[in-house]
Write a structure and sequence with these properties.
The complex is a heterodimer of chains A (161) and B (391). Chain A is an alpha+beta fold and 161 residues long. In chain A, 46% of the residues lie in helices and 19% in strands. Chain B contains 14 helices and nine strands. The chains are: A alpha+beta (161), B alpha/beta (391).
């Protein structure tokens, strides 16, 4: 059985938790997620394992959820761990990754564009500007990155039925 | 060199009497009972009859014909045709028409190859695995979409009204037949708008973030052929210039299938969805302003484009720092020349668009898949500014 990439697993968790917090704290990210229907499900993963983490939008909030691989609305799957790390550690943009055919999209491409924009904006919070300035313009942050990391570490994000 | 992928597995049969080889191509693909797909425009213009005559002479059954494909290929029609294919025991598909017919046929073939029932279940980017082989021949009747050689299909979701993009190498046909007999009934305006669409495919492919050395060769060849042949085709068309335009469209299709398109297409798709502007016309209107917007990010590519647009002498006589701007000026002058030859509308207002529609267009455009490969980020505000300049 294929093993999960340890570093990517951490990165996906940090990103997903970051998105859950920013959905509350950043009006632009909230507005983007609001365009998606309620009970919308997103998975992030890497081949050959497949899905690493699931996000669920319910009642306007974003949660990290249990496995619901049979009803994912939008699945973003990277072809290999090496290129995933490049994107998730801000050494390359999601757009550049798309251009290199690094990622597979299962679901509506228009909805995938929403996710691309929120990941781009989340990266501006998660990384210092000098790391992302090559491919992302400077943004006016609505929340402190330090507080964001604090919440990522100590917040509760799991969805409970 | 940065990583890239390139695919074009389509056999291209182009030039004199190419259409007559359809019989051989069908037998090569082991297809004896094709489902023939077309639309009422192609059927009424008598273009489909030319194909059917050739098939009949070789005793190939021609009773499985569907000519009611609408202007926008849709999920419903694709699922319906897939059922007809099975009911009539067909063993291959011939698509004779423009972008909608070809995209519909691609969708039908995808459903059948994946042994599914609903095209909606297959939406996405590069997720589809190799399926059963369904022989698939495409006969393009316009000189713009290049869809005969693209791994992309645009299909409308009847429930949401949104046009969805399907991207997969499994969408590529087996064979494309480029024969002047298929485009000879095209009116001048349609020739102009479809050829300008192909020009946009080439320019966006050449300047996209996904460009690669192989797609560049196809894009630049297509640009040169369109610039040389479009004005002549509108003034004094010959078989050669018409064939060259159709071939240029195919080359542009191969280029953008691998390098993708950009901002012009993202806004153009939204203009089509929101205001019903014909695709080729929207492309012609938006191209110069989008090039101006992208200028600082695409300066080197646009500079190089001048060589293929205006020729070696003009390129050599233009100072290096002025070449990109000259390329945009060349496009503007070229489009105005085409406008004079066939009264093509080059303003959004020519198609009844008002500034009140801009926010909705811009919102749709930022969700279009094409925007991700545009070199320069563009948000709602930037797109509205571009639209204002095109009004």
């Amino acid at each position: 059985m294929a093993k999960r990439d340890f570093l990517c697993n951490i990165i996906f968790n940090v990103l997903s938790r970051g998105l859950c917090v920013l959905n509350k704290k950043d009006s632009i990210i909230r507005q983007e997620f609001n365009a998606l229907p309620d009970n919308y499900t997103i998975s992030l993963g890497i081949l050959p394992v497949g899905d690493y983490i699931y996000l669920l939008k319910r009642d306007g909030k974003l949660f990290i959820s249990k496995d619901f691989s049979d009803k994912v609305d939008l699945a973003i799957t990277f072809k290999n761990a090496k290129n995933t790390r490049k994107v998730m550690l801000a050494r390359s943009s999601v757009a550049e990754s798309f251009c290199r055919h690094d990622l597979l999209v299962s679901g509506d491409i228009a909805e995938a564009m929403v996710l691309v924009r929120v990941i781009n904006r989340a990266e501006k919070y998660l990384f210092p500007h000098f790391m992302t300035k090559r491919f992302l313009p400077k943004i006016k942050k609505e929340y402190s990155s330090i507080f964001l990391y604090f919440r990522i570490l100590f917040g509760r994000f799991k969805y409970k039925d | 060199m940065s990583y890239f992928e390139f695919i074009n597995s389509v056999k291209i049969c182009a030039g004199e009497n190419a259409l007559d080889n359809i019989v051989y191509e069908l037998s090569f693909l082991k297809c004896s009972r094709p489902l023939i797909l077309s639309d009422s425009g192609v059927f009424n213009a008598g273009v489909l009859d030319k194909v059917i005559d050739i098939l009949k002479k070789s005793d190939i059954p021609t009773d499985a014909v569907f000519t009611d494909i609408p202007a926008d290929s849709s999920v419903l029609i694709i699922n319906y045709i897939a059922k007809i294919y099975s009911d009539k025991s067909c063993d291959g598909i011939i698509a004779c028409g423009g972008g909608s017919v070809i995209d519909t046929a691609k969708g039908v073939r995808l459903v059948l190859a994946q042994q599914g029932e609903d095209i909606l279940a297959l939406k996405g980017n590069e997720i589809i695995k190799k399926g059963t082989h369904i022989p698939f021949i495409v006969l393009p009747t316009t000189c713009g979409t290049g869809s005969e050689c693209t791994a992309v299909a645009v299909i409308k979701n009847h429930e949401t009204g949104i046009k969805m993009e399907y991207i997969s190498s499994e969408l590529l046909p087996d064979t494309a037949i480029i024969d002047v007999r298929l485009t000879e009934t095209l009116p001048k305006k349609l020739i102009a708008s479809s050829a300008l669409d192909a020009l946009v495919h080439s320019i966006e492919a050449f300047s996209s973030a996904q460009k690669n050395p192989i797609s560049d060769v196809y894009a630049t060849t297509a640009i040169k052929m369109i610039v040389e042949n479009l004005p002549i085709t509108l003034k004094n068309p010959t078989k050669e210039t018409r064939t060259n335009l159709a071939l240029a469209s195919t080359l542009a299709g191969i280029a953008f299938s691998n390098a993708m398109v950009g901002l012009v297409h993202a806004i153009g798709h939204a203009c089509g969805g929101e205001c019903g502007i014909p695709h080729g016309n929207a492309m012609a209107i938006l191209l110069p302003e989008c090039m101006k917007y992208n200028l600082d990010s695409c300066k080197n590519d646009y500079s190089e484009l001048l060589l293929y647009l205006a020729g070696a002498e003009s390129y050599a006589n233009t100072p290096r720092e002025m070449r990109a701007i000259k390329a945009i000026e060349f496009i503007e002058n070229f489009e105005n020349e085409i406008k004079e030859l066939c009264s093509l509308g080059l303003k959004l207002s020519d198609y009844g668009v008002t500034s009140e529609q801009f926010p909705a267009i811009a919102q749709k455009a930022i969700n279009d898949g094409a925007i991700i490969v545009n070199r320069k980020n563009a948000g709602v505000e930037e797109i509205i500014e571009i639209l204002k300049k095109c009004l």
